[in-house]
Amino acid sequence: MLEQIKDWIHRRLSGATALHDFDNLPKPATAASQPLATTRLIVLDLETTGLNPAKDEVIAIGAVAIDAMKIPFDDQFDLILRRPELDISETVLIHGIGNEALTRGHETEDALLHLLEWMDGDPVFAFHAAFDQKFLEKTLKQTLGYSQSHLWLDVADILPAFFPNAETGGTRLDNWSDYFGLEVSERHHAAADALATAELMLICLNKALKSGVNTLSELNDKLRYYRRLKTIQRL
Amino acid sequence: MAAAADTSRPQNTRAIMTFLREHAPFSSMDDSHLALFAEHATLQFHADGDVVLAPEDGPVQRFYVVKQGRIRGERESGRDGKTETTFEISQGECFPLAALIGERPTRTLHRAAGDTFSLSIGHKDFVTLLSASDPFRDFCLRGVSSLLDQVNQRIQSGAMASIGSSNSLDTPLERYALRNPIVCTPDLPVRKAVARMHENSVGSIIITDDQRHPTGIFTLRDLRTMVAEEKASLDTPVSQVMTPDPCCLNARQDAFQAAMLMAEYHFAHICVVDEEGELIGVVSERDLFSLQRVDLVHLARTIGTAPHLRTLVSLRTQVSRLVDSMLAHGADSGQVVKIITTLNDVTVRRVLELNIKKNDPGIPFTWLTFGSEGRQEQTLLTDQDNGILFRSPDGMTPDQVRERLLPFAETVNKELAECGFTLCKGNIMASNPKLCLSEHEWDDWFIRFIDASTPQNLVYSSIFLDMRAVFGPMEPLHALLERVLGRIRKNALFQKMLAGNALQRKPPLTMFRNFRYAPDGEKHTLDLKRQGLAPFVETVRVFALANGVEAANTLERMDELARKGIFDAKDANAWKEAYSLIQAIRMRAHQEMLERDEPLSNYINPDDLNPLDRRILRESFRQAQRIQQKLELAYQL
């Protein structure tokens, strides 16, 4: 994957137009009988200029893959987008991406195309996935006119579904990371957060296989059941 | 890629490199090699109890590093089918080296102990790293022993900074004594023998029989005495003026043993012989030390012949300097404590001799030492534990003997204190009437000691059951010891109580293999003596006493127990190594305290250690747990 990025940077620098095949972008997968033990999954985290998908923008994308229950570090995605026009004054303190980095970042269009190719249509996991999904889908639509929906699953739901009795003291990524004693190398760095989320997913997948949840659709069912249970409990 | 700024690497790659850099062998590897590892690594999760690697998985395909958590090695132990933990691998440690390099399946089941994350690279990347990185190759091919080397190297280089050249005392004697020794027959006149020495410019000549067995040695010093005292003419056969039965060592024994003999008996030359006892060379003090400037023999001789107490006092600072230089020259901790003990013995003997010269009590006695001095395990921090064993001359009661010996002993205790042996707070000293006893009284004393087995007595066992004579006739002590050992062997209850007492001091590890800090010291400190060494010393003592091992030294006791088949040879080695490493870390701490002019203490903060030492200390404590488990099993405690 690093080789690919280098290639791609090289192509950009040498002035050639991106060689992405717009018509043949990978088709998103649906939740079917893919076995969790062997499937490739994407775990993704975005840094944005704010919390409102209607007006804020994506500035960094970090993602790792889980392939056959392992995280291979030669298959990851870690890019800052080039968007010097954006106002980042509100959030620069959180993610530490300043104007200079944004100017040096990568062309948005190219980066997104590259992301789609790298994701290869695989299901996407994120912590509080709705947030990342809205931002990414909006950005994909605005920039590339791409409107196919990936399968998104929320790690913030998966965790309590498998560990209902965990006393985490909260529902945030930090709470769960602390609960499992994970070390997050740099909080609010998209790639580091994505890795922490992926580590939590490894723990969930291990538990899933032991409790008879073997496929993506079974996982999806388990989540649906869990959400319904929570709604009932709230009533 | 290597030349690019570090920010050019993805955040997660950088994070893995940062993690690796904190652990050996990665800490000594180049960044480009760490990047190679990080970029090709795979992160995996193993829940508590999951099998990570198993013998039936076939040849090992990946090289693993524990990123978080622990991995336990399991082996089924014989008949009862119970599993036994053979090793534990914690954060930053690697596995499975031997199987991966041997391209075979692992022989031990590797299981996660607690939730664990591992980083791993494939066989191909492993081989690439192996050929690219020297520290990595060195580590993988030599396994943990290269870790131990790193510790020793560090201990040595610390001491080295103040000294210079290096030459290991582990070198076998054959390497020193290669040249042809100058020999002659017993009937050769002294004049001719000296001429032969002169021709070859050597200071000694060995007198051999027909089979080339050394029967005597004649040195320039002997010549000087002979001429000065006009004892004999130069035409006398050399056999009449030689020193008979010269000290011989086998060629495979090392320089350290030669140095110890020289220091103890003040020899300047030692014959080196082969398996058949035939002479193959001579080593002199100069051969051993000319390159090294380690003045052990000279120092021992100066102490042993010091004319006044004040000379002895002034020589003590040189002992500390010597310890520094011994560490620098590759002496291991076992060697260094023995050297300290040897020099202490010489000092004690000299203090006694000087006092006898001044004020002879007129009654022969054996000077006993107890505890760490008895075990020959003294470090620079030492206090006096001694006593007197005497045979009452005819017509004298023990009380009358004591009347003469006690004032003498009191002066000796006081003078030893001036030489740096702190007075014993518990009054375990020869000037205490309860410890200045006749043979019969000591016998009674031990009978009461063993039969009563009060808690107080058990506490004293670490002192009085590690006993040695440093001055006076040895035979009375030997006879006493034999009787004491016999009684303990027959007294199963006493053994069991000793064992229970030995288990009071637990190695400072928590259930989760973290350090358990000392209850009485400063925050976050470990007591290396009480928490680290004592579990070994006390456990080994019980086994030694129960099995008739007379040696008092812990390492010698372990050797002897292994020879008797009480300890498995591999276990004994692991325990000796663990014990020595704790001792080495303790001694280095002492040297550092001396440099900073701080009072010596046995407390250290493990956070002050580098990760490698911390890891080794933890593994050593785990070995202490194992030896205690053996004791628990033996006495069903």
**Strand pairing plus helix content of chain B: what structural class?**
alpha+beta
Helix amount of chain A:
40-55%
> What is the count of distinct domains of chain A?
1
Characterize the main sheet of chain B. 4 strands, antiparallel
CATH architecture of the largest domain in chain B: 2-Layer Sandwich
**Biggest sheet: strand arrangement of chain B:** 1-8-3-6
Given the C-alpha coordinates, what overall shape of chain A results?
globular
| Low-confidence segments of chain A | none
Distance between the termini of chain A: 48 Å
What name does CATH use for the topology of chain A? Nucleotidyltransferase, domain 5
CATH superfamily of the largest domain in chain B: Beta Polymerase, domain 2
CATH class assignment of chain A: Alpha Beta
Gyration radius from CA atoms of chain A, angstroms:
18 Å
Structural class of the secondary elements of chain A? alpha/beta
Query: Which percent range describes the beta-strand content of chain A?
Result: 15-25%
General form of chain B: globular
Give structural notes.
The complex is a heterodimer of chains A (235) and B (637). With 235 residues, chain A is α/β, with parallel strands linked by helices. Chain A has a single domain (36-155, 166-234), classed as 2-Layer Sandwich (Nucleotidyltransferase, domain 5). Helix content of chain A is 45%, strand content 16%. Chain A is built from nine helices and seven strands, in the order αββββααβαβαβαααα. Chain A has helices spanning 2-13, 92-95, 99-104, 108-119, 129-144, 155-162, 173-179, 190-210, 216-234; strands spanning 40-48, 58-67, 70-72, 76-82, 106-107, 124-126, 152-154. Chain A has a six-stranded mixed β-sheet with strand order 5-4-2-1-6-7. In chain A, helix 6 packs parallel to helix 8. The termini of chain A are far apart. Chain B is of the alpha+beta class and 637 residues long. Chain B folds into four domains: 6-141, Sandwich (Jelly Rolls); 173-253 and 270-288, CBS-domain (Roll), CATH 3.10.580; 296-490, Beta Polymerase, domain 2 (2-Layer Sandwich), CATH 3.30.460; 499-635, Four Helix Bundle (Hemerythrin (Met), subunit A). Chain B is 49% helix and 15% strand. Chain B contains 22 helices and 21 strands. In chain B, the strands form six sheets. Chain B has a four-stranded antiparallel β-sheet with strand order 1-8-3-6. In chain B, helix 18 (492-502) packs antiparallel against helix 22. Chain B starts with 10 loop residues before the first helix and ends with a helix. The model of chain B is unreliable at 1-5, 158-167 and 290-294 (pLDDT under 50). Classes of the chains: A alpha/beta (235), B alpha+beta (637). Chain A binds chain B through residues 2, 62, 64, 69-74, 76, 78, 180-183, 185-186, 189, 191-192, 195, 198-199, 202-203, 205-207, 210, and chain B through 1, 10-16, 18, 38-47, 50, 68, 115, 117. Strand 3 (70-72) of chain A pairs antiparallel with strand 1 (42-46) of chain B, so a sheet runs across the interface.
